[in-house]
Task: inverse folding
């Protein structure tokens, strides 16, 4: 007789791994690794849609996404941009180029 509650089933029930609407298995760790990329607008349109589908089907991932999103908004509101001296910017560029040429 096959066990109904193997480790995979337990992981699915506790949202660690579960099937998505497309039938693929959902992995919270993998999904959460993509959250920062999504918040920084570094995903393609297709990748972002897949990520949002996964997040909307997992309450754990949705909660973590919302926390990260609100933290990023908080930081963006608190950080002020100041103009940089053009000479300083040139020195930084030259330093970076020298390091990259090594």
Result:
């Amino acid at each position: 007789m096959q066990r109904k509650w193997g480790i995979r089933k337990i992981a699915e029930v506790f949202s660690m791994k579960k099937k998505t609407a497309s039938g693929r298995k959902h992995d919270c760790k993998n999904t959460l690794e993509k959250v920062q990329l999504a918040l920084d607008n570094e995903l393609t349109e297709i990748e972002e849609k897949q990520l949002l589908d996964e997040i909307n089907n997992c309450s754990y991932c949705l909660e973590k996404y919302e926390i990260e999103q609100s933290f990023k908004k908080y930081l963006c509101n608190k950080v002020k941009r100041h103009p940089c001296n053009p000479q300083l910017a040139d020195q930084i560029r030259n330093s970076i180029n020298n390091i990259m040429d090594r």
